[in-house]
Amino acid sequence: MAESTPEHARRVRAALDLIAAEEADGLVPELLALAEMVYDHWGREGRKVLDAAVAADDRFQSELVHRLTTRYHEVEPGAPARRSIVVLLANIGRTQPTAETQRPDTRAALIRLAAEQDVHYNTHQLIRLAELEHADGRELPGEFVAVVRRSSLVLWNGGKQLGALVARLHDPVVNPGEAWADRALAEADELGDDWRRLLAHAATATAARPSAKWDKTGRALIEPLGADEVRERLLSWLRLVGRPRTRPLLEQRYGPDVNAVFDPYNADALRGLAWLLSLLPPHPDTARTLGALVETALRKVAGLGPVNPKVANAAVNALARIDGEAALAELARLATRVTFKGTLKLLNSGLDARAEAMGLSREEIEELAVPAYGLTEVGRAEHRLGEVTALLEVRGPKAVLSWCNANGKAVKSVPAAVRRDHADELKELKGAVKDIDKMLSAQSERLDRQFLARRTWPYPAWRERYLDHPLVGTLARRLLWTVDGTTVGYADGELRTLADAPVTEGTHVELWHPVGHEPAQIVAWRDWLERHGITQPFKQAHREVYLLTDAERTTGTYSNRFAAHVLRQHQFHSLAAIRGWHNKLRLAVDDEAPPAVRELPQWGLRAEYWIAGDSGENYEDITESGSFLRLRTDQVRFYPIDAPQNSAHCCGGEYRMWLRGGVDPVDPLPLTDVPPLVLSEVLRDVDLFVGVASVGNDPTWQDGGPGGRFREYWTSYGFGELGASAETRRALLERLIPRLAIADRCTIEGRFLHVKGTRHTYKIHLGSGNILMTPNDQYLCIVPKSNPAAPQTGYLPYEGDRMLAVILSKAMMLADDLKITDPTILSQL
Predict the structure, then answer these.
(1) Alpha helices (H) in 359-480, listed in sequence order
(2) What is the distance between the alpha carbons of residues 472 and 376, in angstroms, rounded to a whole number?
(3) Residue ranges of the alpha helices (H) in 633-723?
(4) In the structure, how many helices (H) and strands (E) does the chain have?
(5) What is the pLDDT of residues 34-70, one digit of tens each?
(6) pTM
């Protein structure tokens, strides 16, 4: 509400009268009403109220502070009034009541109020409250100590103002309020001073890497406790990192959610715990937990980015210091998953150092880093636990643990005898299942990137590291390879040609790609995979091939094939990182940024995708942190890898080559000079970015989004011509539909899957999954789940097509539309 309204003016006059009369009790509701109307932007008239309250004498000000703090603790947690009171106290408390006039019950209420905040901006009040409590011989609550420490670390000049107080606050050792810290504090108190000293040492990990002195102290503290005991305790604490706060903090009006980030003081302790683990003998649980800590610390928080990269980096440094297969495997796995630039750089450095130490290439170290995880043959292992047999199998993208009793009969759950007598072995098996699932995903992504790596393997090394590897073999045996120029696949225990002739030896091996092969041969291999029931871990035989178009031959040096799209920026940014592209988030600031870039050192090339921020006419479509919500796309170009960088203003405009030191400009390469494999794979990446991140895929945007600005684009994309990926999906659906239970209700016509229901006939677009229904092509909005499960359709030739699962799920639902119960969908039918 604007401050100039009659109600605001009346409230201001009433508040000033109450201050003049020194009626603190009546002033509180007037202040809260003003705060609720305009919050912290009080304006000229509103500031008179605050100035008058600040100018009041100590007695009245003390009474007002008491009334406000009392009201704070009466208000329901999470209510906006709580935040308003904190803002009011920050303004009114600029001059403070003296120690002689401050009431003990007010002090206690202020301490409780401060303890619920992330940081407390009135540092003088924090110091005085602490001094008064110490003078009275009372210990400060742990939550109050926590806010003092956080304020010291976070506030501008906080360290200078609060440093002396923080240095005197030794208890609690870490800040309470986080699940892991609460557990650590409770166990350290129970176990004694040696554990408290170890935890306190962890909290001193404020540097990027541990010093020799820090390590020496850590080893001395570990020795009397025992390495195994320390490992078990530290791992049990770290497994709780990322759980919801046990004591939620007061939410801020602006900025990231304070309850979704790590306590900054505790973050140092987490770094220290990771370093301490690296001083212990290697153990699979250590590597597993440190890897999980990296991923938890890099989880994205709205308005902030990664939760705490420093903690992630400390865990990576710890893994790099640990010898053994498990730590190396975790480094290699994380290198395929992590997209945050600083942490990825550390991972690459760690792997490069390990490769150099072993005299191997980086590619070889990544291949050798994959453990078997207890698998004794490709995708399978049997473990005898007493009279029970545990069967560990890899089935598609997942590991499955099953059980047989003494008679060889399958049982559904873990037998009681195993839980009782083989708890450690059971724990290891369950851990192996989780590790295999993570590593399968990582290795699948690594293999999918090998098409541009120009890798050639000696046949014996390839069989050992790929085809016959207990884990990687479950992926390699579902792919096509080229052995000495002959395409082969694995079936019935052998490598086989298209005619099923066995191939038992060779010299060199490459990963097969459809570029350069005749369409008839590609279709024949697709049939071969289906005949042998092989589901590939990603698109290979069905991989889209992007050939030069006439339009691209005309433009010569750039492709407009994926220009003029509107993408969700943060989704695009994540996808680009996963596919090996470098990108800078576009911020609504006066700055320039390069295009999204994929460097291809094996080819001496650099691919660029030109993009610009889209903010709307009045810069309304940006986040609180200032980044654009959406991007507009432009050209795809190729340059020599060492060509000067192009850049453009973040808000849009012409790209120019940044020339320094008298360097001459470099022209983009003609698309005809780009190797067909490189062109196809780069355009496939860009098609993926558009296909996943386009706002045209959002079923709730039928109104065109904010202000209807994107209505034309949404319609043209959501129901327009199919791209290469959608055409592949169409070809697959033509083979799948006849096998479905709803086959008699489905037909494919052009861009749509037609589904005949009882209420309507529906047209599902094969690119976006958007739906039109009879009689007038009325739009039907069905929002899919974030990870829809594909209906049982029998054989699928490849994994990973989320849109295929969305389309099939919608088709199954709409074919039996009389059974739909969702009120949102029913209201449209």
Answers:
(1) 362-368, 416-421, 423-448, 459-462, 473-476
(2) 13
(3) 676-693, 711-718
(4) 31, 25
(5) 766 654 456 666 677 777 777 777 777 777 777 778 7
(6) 0.78
Report the amino acid identity of residue 715.
Answer: T
Q: How does DSSP classify residue 466? A: I
Amino acid at 143: E
562 Cβ contact list (under 8 Å, min separation 6):
609, 633, 636, 683, 686, 687, 689, 690
Map residue 677 onto helix, strand or coil.
Answer: helix
Instruction: Tell which phi-psi region holds residue 682, choosing left (phi > 0), alpha (psi between -120 and 50) or beta.
Output: alpha
Is the Cβ–Cβ distance between 445 and 397 less than 8 Å? no
Q: How far is CA 609 from CA 569, 590, 606, 639, 686, in A?
A: 13, 21, 10, 12, 8
Q: Residues 6 or more apart from 320 whose CB is under 8 A from it?
A: 327, 331, 346, 349, 350, 353, 354
Q: How many CB atoms lie within 10 A of CB 126?
A: 24
From the list 817, 733, 815, 814, the residue with the least C-alpha distance to 767 is: 733
The answer to whether 354 and 328 have CB atoms below 8 angstroms apart is yes
Confirm if 627 and 586 have CB atoms less than 8 A apart: yes
User: Would you call 62 helix, strand, or coil by DSSP?
Assistant: helix
Cβ distance 250 to 82 under 8 Å? yes
Name the residue ranges covered by the structural domains of the chain: 6-168, 179-368, 380-446, 453-531, 550-693, 711-826
Tokens standing for residue 631: 């991007």
By C-alpha distance, which of 26, 33, 28 is closest to 10? 33
For 659-673, the pLDDT digits (tens) are 877 788 899 999 999
* Beta-strand relationship, 457-458 and 481-483: unpaired
CA Rg, the chain, in Å?
Answer: 32
Name the CA dihedral angle for 592, 595, 598, 600, rounded to a multiple of 10 degrees. Answer: -80
Q: Please give the Cα distance from 810 to 168 (Å, whole number).
A: 63
φ and ψ at residue 731, rounded to 5 degrees: -60, -40
pLDDT tens column, 187-234:
999 999 999 999 999 999 999 899 999 999 999 999 999 999 999 999
* Bridge partners (DSSP) listed for residue 435: none
In angstroms, what CA-CA distances link 615 with 123, 563, 628, 689? 38, 18, 6, 20
- Measured CA to CA, the distance from residue 454 to residue 336 in angstroms comes to 18
Q: How many CB atoms within 10 Å of residue 684?
A: 18
The owner of tokens 């453990």 is 371
Q: How many CB atoms lie within 10 A of CB 105?
A: 11
